[in-house]
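Sanity check

After download, print the first record. It should look like this:
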Amino acid sequence: MISLALADDQTLVRAGFRSILSGEPDMTVAGEASDGAQAIELARRLRPDVMLMDIRMPGIDGLAATREICADEELRGVRVVILTTFESDEYVYGAIRAGASGFLLKDIEPAELIHAVRVVARGDALLAPSVTRRLIGEMAGRLKPPPAPEPGTLTARELEILDLIAAGLSNEEIAARLVISYATTKTHVSRILTKLALRDRAQLVVWAYETGRARPGWHTSRDVPAIPRIHPGNHFPVRDTTDS
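Expected structure tokens:
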């Protein structure tokens, strides 16, 4: 059972998400918060698997709450997903760098929300390719990046997978592209994160842009694999279940 917490200062928004998610047989909404301080307290008390976090809330906002939750070693099992309107929430980039596992648009379709929660709960970061590239591409040139770890001992295969992750591909799509198993792909991703001392795929994409390995528009280069087809009206890569 996936345990969820909702942090948003709008009661109707929380009620809408609760209605959608609590109807799933493998999900339960354990608690709600209306501001960042409550979200932090909720995370420490309930230890939910996934917390959906709004950015703009009174008092401690979602960005500060995300930073505190993700910095707490005792809360490493709590995966934060930012909720945003995107066009106005430039703080999302900072939230991902602070440790959030991804972000969603508030106009997300119910099926996409359910899929997103399951993706994050199983340990993957939620990186909607159509949104991630635009956001990081815009923000990468504006913010001063922190010192980034060196690629070090990454193998040729690991660098290849790193590039595909930065291009927005899911583990399933990487496995299909490289003709390897899903389990092998997950092992490679885990090793990459360990070698670069990064928390998850979201931070890996940020690292790729901050260090110049990826750049806005880079996916159009003939040297980088093309981005896979995205289902019409869906921000998320189509799941390939042939190797899962």
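If your output differs, re-run the checksum step. Summary of this record's structure: The radius of gyration is 17 Å.
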